[in-house]
Design goal:
The chain has one domain: TIM Barrel, CATH 3.20.20.370. Helices cover 39% and strands 13% of the residues. It contains eight helices and nine strands. Helix 2 runs parallel beside helix 7, helix 4 crosses helix 5 and helix 6 runs parallel beside helix 7. The chain binds zinc ion. One of its GO terms (molecular function) is hydrolase activity, acting on carbon-nitrogen (but not peptide) bonds. Keywords: Carbohydrate metabolism, Cobalt, Hydrolase, Metal-binding, Signal.
Length: 244
């Protein structure tokens, strides 16, 4: 899961070359903010909010993570993959039942810029079919694996009706799943919040992420008086628009 400099360049190129697309009219109410399509969104729009996000699950550690989030009364966002989803249906159903936001991370954790249009569509719809079957919802939010995105993929997500979510704080937890190393991820989180970051990238694949990093992040958030919530809510998107 190394994010190479070429991927970063690709993302920067995409950010530089895409412009504000059409906000879909259903979002334009007095209580909500219009959430754009066709561009990468990496920050919350509602002041004072922060969104913890967990990619690549659900996995064997997801139930423990859900317990910790429940203990703190916090809802998070889970960008899930499809390829081993049927091994963790209970965790998937808990994510939805406990009010967290379920979002797409493609079926196979695909590197989307390498795929043709038909395969991009099948990565998204393959996961949609599973989610429809097991939890009865289809997300409107996605995060591209490796944050790898170009203008062509963004256009495809627009066609398919997905808001594309990046991250403004990267904990790099996947490289620090060790009691002696996870403190560096905690430091990255604190530094990121100090720098104004609001959408936090982590993975529910690792023991240290769940038991050490998440607890530390929740304590820090409480200490600062921030409101931790889902990506959609921190974008000002009411719950009826999280899914289609
Ligand atoms: Zn991922």
């Amino acid at each position: 899961m190394t994010l190479t400099s070429s991927l970063i360049n690709l993302l920067l190129l995409a950010l530089a070359t895409t412009t504000y697309s059409h906000p879909h009219p259903h979002n334009q109410t007095a209580q909500s903010l219009p959430v754009p399509y066709g561009m990468v969104l990496a920050d919350c729009a509602v002041p004072g909010t922060i969104a913890l996000t967990f990619d690549d699950g659900p996995y064997i550690y997801t139930p423990a993570l859900l317990d910790i989030l429940a203990d703190h009364g916090v809802r998070a966002t889970f960008f899930v993959n499809g390829y081993r989803l049927t091994d963790h249906i209970d965790a998937l159903q808990r994510i939805v039942a406990e009010g967290h936001q379920l979002a797409s991370h493609t079926y196979n954790h695909a590197y989307l810029p390498s795929l043709d249009y038909a395969n991009i569509v099948s990565e998204m719809q393959g996961l949609e079919d599973l989610l429809r079957e097991f939890v009865g919802v289809v997300p409107r939010y996605m995060r591209p694996p490796y944050l790898a995105m170009d203008g062509r993929v963004l256009a495809a997500m627009d066609d398919l009706g997905y808001h594309v979510i990046g991250a403004s704080i990267d904990t790099k937890d996947f490289e620090r799943d060790d009691p002696w190393l996870i403190h560096d991820s905690i430091r990255r989180f604190v530094d990121g919040v100090n720098a104004g970051g609001t959408i936090v990238l982590a993975h529910d694949l690792y023991t240290q992420t769940v038991y050490t990093l998440t607890r530390a992040m929740l304590e820090e958030i409480a200490k600062r008086g921030l409101h931790a919530t889902t990506v959609a809510e921190c974008m000002g998107d009411p719950r009826e628009y999280w899914y289609r």
